[in-house]
Every structure is written in C-alpha cells, then in structure tokens.
Amino acid sequence: MSTNLSVKSKKISSESSAVKKSKSIITKTLDAIMGERKELSKYWAVVKKIEALEPEIQGLSDEELRQKTVYFREQFRGLEGKTIQKKLEALIPEVFAVVREAAIRTLGQRHYGVQLIGGMVLNDGRIAEMRTGEGKTLVSTLSVYLNALPEKSQVHVVTVNDYLARRDASWMGQVFNFLGLSIGIIQNQASFYFQLGAQADKGSEVKRQIGKVESFEDGEIDTRSVLDVENLVSCSRARAYWDESTLTPVDVVYGVNSEFGFDYLRDNMANTPDEIVQKAGHTVAVIDEVDSILIDEARTPLIISSQDKDSSARYNQFSSLVKKLNPEVDYEVDEKRRTVTLSNLGMDKVERLLSIDNLYSDPENVVLVHHLDQALKARAVFKREKDYVVREGEIVIVDENTGRMMFGRRYNQGLHQAIEAKEGVQVQSESRTVATITFQNYFRLYKKLSGMTGTASTEAEELFKTYKLLVVSIPTNKPSVRIDLVDKIFKTEDGKFRAIARDIKAIYEKGQPVLIGTTSIEKNLLLSRYLKDLGIPHELLNAKNHEQEARIVSQAGIKGAVTLATNIAGRGVDIKLGGEIPENKDKYEQWLVAHEEVKSLGGLFVIGTERHESRRIDNQLRGRAGRQGDPGKSQFYISLEDYILRVFGGDRVSYYNILPIADDEAIQNKLLSRLIEEAQKRIEGQNYDSRKSITEYDDVINRQRTVIYSRRKKVLLNEGFDADKEMQVSIAREVSELIQPIPRKFKTNSTEYSNFIDSISKEIKKIDTIKDLDIVGVAKIYNDTKNQPKLISPIITKEIIDHLDEKWSGYSSKEKNALTRFIFLRAIDVLWTEHLVTIDHLNDSVKLRGYSQKDPLVEFKQDGMSIFLKLLQEIDKEIAYTIFKITPSLVPSAMMSQE
C-alpha cells in the first residue's frame, strides 16, 4: 500500500509541477503580450500627435519644408550623450510629420500609422518586425532622417546585397535630398553619391564598374532600369562617406554589411589619415533584413588576407646564404627568445655575399632583411624532429605540448617557406590573415543599432543576448487573409516533385501566379526539369544575379506567372499582384484591372519544396504571399528523403516508408509534422550554440583588437602622440626586459663581475652598439644597490636615448616625428598579423583540451591573455631594435607630407 501511495504521491507531485510549469509559461506569454500592447499603446499616442501636425506641415512651401532640417539641427547644437536621445524623442512628432510630407511630395507615398510606429521602434534601438509588403524601406526614412540630424552623426543603412543598396539609395534618397541631407552608397566594386536627376549614359563609369546583366531568355536587357543608377554619381570610397568640400560626414550611407565591415578593417590598416574612409565612426546603423545579417551571416567572420607572392627563389637563395655563416662568430642564438642576432662580422659577411653596402639603410633592403631573419631562424632555431618533421615532401609542424603532428598547419611570416627551403622540399606560397572581425563585434561598435525584418520572433532571444536588441511586432496596416495550408508529406523525393509539378500545372491553368521556393540551386534545376516535362513555362532564378532576380521576382504576381527560385533569390523585392505598379496614369488603370483579376484568382500561391533548418526561413517564404491584406496561399511539400527527416527523424520515420501508398500520394500525419518542427528546433539550437561559441571566442580577440587599434589610431592620427616620450618608453621597457637575466650577485674583479659586464654589454648591443656606455659605473651602482635591475635600467636607457639623439641630430623635427610614427605602425602591423595566426592556432588547439576535462574557453582566455601580453612586449622590442636601423628615406612620402 505504501508503495502505491508513494507512486501516487510522485504522480501528483509531477502533475503539480507540470501544471505550475504550464501556468508559468502562460503567465510569461500573457505578460509579453500585455507588455507589447502597452508599448504599442504608447506609440499610438505619438501617432496621434503626428496626425495633428499634418495640416500645418502640409501648408508649408517646399523651401519652408527644407528649412525644417536647419531648424532641427539647431536643436542638437552642443548636446552630447543621453541628452541627444532625449531630444530625438522630443522631436519625433514634428520630424516624422515633416518626413511623411517630404515622401508624399517626392515619391507620392504617405506613411501609414503602423509605419510611423515602425520608425519609432527603430529610433528606440530595437527591431521592427513587419510583414512582407508593409513598406519597411519607407519606414526606414523616418528613423534614418531623425538620427542624421545631430552634429557629426552619420547613419549607415545596411542591406543584404549591392542591388538593394543602390535601389534604396536611389529611391529613398529623393526624400533625404529634398530635405537637404547628403547620401552615399558603397559597393563591392564601386561607390556613389546621390545627385538628383543624374543619369548613367552608355559607357559611363557606373556601367563599367557594375557590369552588364543578361536575361536567361531575352538576351540583353536595359541595364539602366535594372541597375537603378538614376540619381547616382560614381565617386571614390572616401567621398561616399565624407564630403571634403564641406569637411563634414555624408549624412546617410547605404551599403552591404560586409562592405561596411571591410572598410572598418581597412581603416585600421591605413598608413595615412587620408586613407581612412569611416571618419565619422560608428554612430547609428539601421539594418534591413536584420535577421539575415545578424543571424544567418554571423557564423562567417570578415577576414582580410594577403597572398604572399611566389618567392621560392628568394627563400632558396637565403637558405644557401646562411649555410655559409659561422654560428660561432657570425650570429648568436637566443634560445629562450628563439631569436637570432647577427654580429658585426656576420653583417659584414652578409653584405659581401649580397653585394650591398649597408643592409639596413636602403629601403629596397627591407625584404632582404625579412628573408635573412627567417632563414636564420629556420637554420639555427627550428629543429627537425623536434619542431617539425618532413613527411612525403612536406614540412609538418609538431605540437610542442602533445608531440602530435599538426597536418595542414603552417608557420606564418614566411618561416614555413624558409624551413621548406632549408630541407630542400618544394617551397609553397600562402595567404596570411592581416585583419579579421565577426559581424557580432562589428555591429556592437555602433552607439545605436536597430533593424527591420518580416521574421525575427523565433530568434528574439539570441538577438537580445548577443546584440541587446528587443523585437517589437508591428501590426499590419490591413488584416492578413493569407491561408497557410497543412504540409503535404510524401515517401520519396521523386514522388514529391511529381506531385508538386502536377499541382503547379493545375494552378497555372487556372491563371493564379505561383512562386516556388527551393533550398538549393541543385533542387532548383531538378524541379525545373519536372516542369519542362509537363510543358509549364517558368522563370528560373537561383540567386546568382541580384539585379535580374529583382526584375523577375517583381513580376511574379502577374496572372499565369510561374517563378521557380532558391529561397534567398530576390529577397527585399515586393511582389505585387498584377506586377509592378507603373508610374504612367493610363498604364496604371490597366494594372489596376490586372491586380483585381489576380486577387479574384486567389492571389499569389507560394510553394515550399522542403522544410528548412530554421522555421524563420519557412516563414520568410510564406510571407511572400498575402501582402497588404491581399489574398494568398502557402503550402509546403515534404518527403521522407528530405535532409531534416532523414538525419533528424530517427527510427519513427522509417515506419512510414512501408505504408502501402503511392510515392506521389500525400501522407496526412500530425506526428510527422511534429517531428519536423522538433528537428528544426534542435537545428536552430545547434546553430545558435555555434554562433554563441564564435562570439565568445571572438570577444577575447575583440578586447585585444580594441587595444591595438586604439594604439594604432593614436599613432596614425598623431593625436596625443608624443614621439619622443613614446620612443623613450618603448626603449625603457625593452632595456628592463633585457637586463632581467643578468647575474644577481658578484664581487668586484671576480668572475661573476666579468660575466655581468659581458652579459649587459651583449644584451644592450642587441639594440645598439654604444661605445661610451660606462659599464663599470653601471656595475658599481648595481652592486651598491643590492642588485636591483630597476635602478640601473634608467641609466642604460638614458645612454641609448642620448646616442639616438646624436644619430638623429641631423633630422628635422618633421622627419623625426614621421620616422617614429612609421616605426611604431610597422611594428604594430607586422606583429599583430603574426599574433592573429598564433591566436588562430590557439583556438584550434584548446578544443583538444576538453578531452582532459578542461574548459576550452577558459583555456583560450588564459592563454590568449598571456600571448597578448607577450605581443605588447614584442612590439616594444621591435621598436627598440628598429630605431637605429631605419632612416627617413624608408618613410612613405604620404606619411612625411602629413607632418
């Protein structure tokens, strides 16, 4: 009895827990709904204020409307920080009323009330979730204009491809231009600024940069209409961001996410301030299709790499050269630091072998010095069977911790090639990462970040945790009447495609337009063959050309249209029933008739040929139908051979394969539908964990990148950079580092005393040969102060600096400053590039430590910090070792001229 009672008690307890959990979920859901309603209620109250201002704003002349921008900008003069945001919020009613009127006068479009709410959500630094066809592009004008008003503010409008950047800038730029704002556009191969009425004639620079587009069927098409180059004038990258004529930032810049990111990286590789394009920094970003950019593309970091030229002959030359050097007298190996230093005798011998006068004075010799250094390291420091092994004609690095061979890994900075030359195997070329950043950390640079999309709710948690972005669902302007049909499930892929083709034929014969989404180009072409077999004419798109896709997808709502596309094709392009709305009044009447006819046929029918890994992508495809209250349908077709069910379905799926039904006959089963949704949730979780891991590891690098880029910027811009002081600090640090290993105790005239003299002389001469350094005096001070290196370090540092001043006495202050900055930048750039490779190797190696019950992330943070501190020391070392070897002739003329 007691056992039964116990079981019953557990059962009741379990049920009680389940009920509590259920109630908790319901409570949270209700709280979220009520909270969102409260937010929307607040926004609607502001909409009423905007509406009340409309008559007054409508009564203004064009010039009076433009002058509002001047008036608004005056309101921000002298404001900083949080006071700017408060002023932005206070100006919303009047500003939005002005933008709405400007849109009516330039585009003939008026913002709906829900679009005004969307603009407020963006201004609050949130994500506005708006369904397809609700006018997100027009919504962006509100927040973009408002946030471009404060002094020195620049708004970056981020899109998913070059076509949309050009289209939106050419289109919405008319509103901004009318109100007196400047607009720039950055592209992968070109840049533009907005100029109303500008046209691209045949053979213009714009066409040469963007290229010509050809249709699959129609031959050459009108390039101008496809490229949307009206109102755009070709310019330099810098001009797209900055107006030199006014010395002010361009107010609004359109571009692709990757281009903004790459410009940031390139700016932090610039050799002169003039090369920097993002001078205005990262104030505000408004991201279109924000889920695609911040979620889908977040697993791939931005990387700038340099391809090393094929210089095998040079590596072989120096490998042969260092063989002729005597390790006893020509160079000294520092095993602890793993460095090799040429003696004066060695330097003389190298110069004779190379037939040059002075290895370090001629700018042309920089490359030779690099090859010499690597050849010496390969010869004297890196040992075969210890540091590396030779396997099948390749150099394979040996992990110093585990002793395992690290196939596929290569030493950077040409060291691997130097070892290959040493061992007589084929010398290979390689690319090096010189700059990298993840999208997560790039977009975190912005002081205010916001975005728009039709599908963000399923990723709301990740968007908040990663970017601190809240998702606000905006009501539709008109109620949605789209019908989402239950999935059709088939046993085989062939049966599924036959059923799809059969259903499309019936839809086509009815005249209802249909858009079919596939998951890949391969499936896209496969279904196309099925349609051809049934004689169904169709447009085939597979995301290879954004401009052509836009033209075809925009016509996918025409009666009888059958459009077959990969799901990413034509994203951002609105599909209107009856086709694109013409500007011509007579043609508009014809379009209206066609529009109503397609509506009567049921609107656009969207077919999904497979469930995607993310429910969000499925929702994006469904959202192509039923825009602005139009009718429409969506239907997904699934087979048991599809990736999701085949990989994640488990044994439960195999049962349905033995059902006695035809392959092209649909299976109606709720369990299968649940299996698919569960599989999608698992994949979404895995992908989130992957992105989270990338972010956590890059956060470590990002803190280091911030320090290095900040230091580099200070040097490059010559802002708060005291050349003399910075050089002295670097020398002092390196001197302190060098004298650490010298003998601690000695008696005058003893062997230890002689060792001290030899040690300190040898170490300091690595920086410079100082003839008048009072070693005896230094030794006495060292002995009298109880062997404290910190007390003799300043004395030695002063001797070195005095000698440097003597050597540089013939240089002007301009030359000294430029030379110092050049040395600093060179040291930072070279060593930061090496550091990135080291960190990349660490990232890979720490993952193996998980097998020994260690947390890889904790290990990465600890080792990463140690490596970074070493990098900072190496930068000081490089600076100290270079100052006596570089002359002003090595400094780029552009850097010299900026002094």
Notes on the protein architecture:
This protein is α/β, with parallel strands linked by helices and 899 residues long. The chain folds into four domains: 19-303 and 441-473, Rossmann fold (3-Layer(aba) Sandwich), CATH 3.40.50; 312-429, Alpha-Beta Complex (Pre-protein croslinking domain of SecA); 483-668, Rossmann fold, CATH 3.40.50; 703-897, Helical scaffold and wing domains of SecA (Orthogonal Bundle). The strands form seven sheets. It has a nine-stranded mixed β-sheet with strand order 7-4-3-10-2-11-19-1-20, with helices on both faces. It starts with a helix and ends with a helix. Mean pLDDT is 82; it is low at 1-23, 25-30 and 201-228.
In short:
About 55% of the residues lie in helices and about 10% in strands. With about 900 residues, it is α/β, with parallel strands linked by helices. The chain is globular and about 105 Å long.
CATH class designation of the largest domain: Alpha Beta
Mean of residue pLDDT values? 82
CATH topology of the largest domain: Rossmann fold
* Broad shape: globular
Amount of beta strand: 5-15%
Cα-based radius of gyration, to the nearest Å: 34 Å
Q: How many domains make up the coordinates?
A: 4
Helix and strand content put the structural class at: alpha/beta
Number of strands: 27
Largest sheet: 9 strands, mixed
CATH architectural type of the largest domain: 3-Layer(aba) Sandwich
Low-confidence stretches: 1-23, 25-30, 201-228
Give the CATH superfamily of the largest domain. P-loop containing nucleotide triphosphate hydrolases
Number of helices: 32
Strand order of the largest sheet: 7-4-3-10-2-11-19-1-20
User: Separation of termini?
Assistant: 95 Å
Share of residues in helices: 40-55%
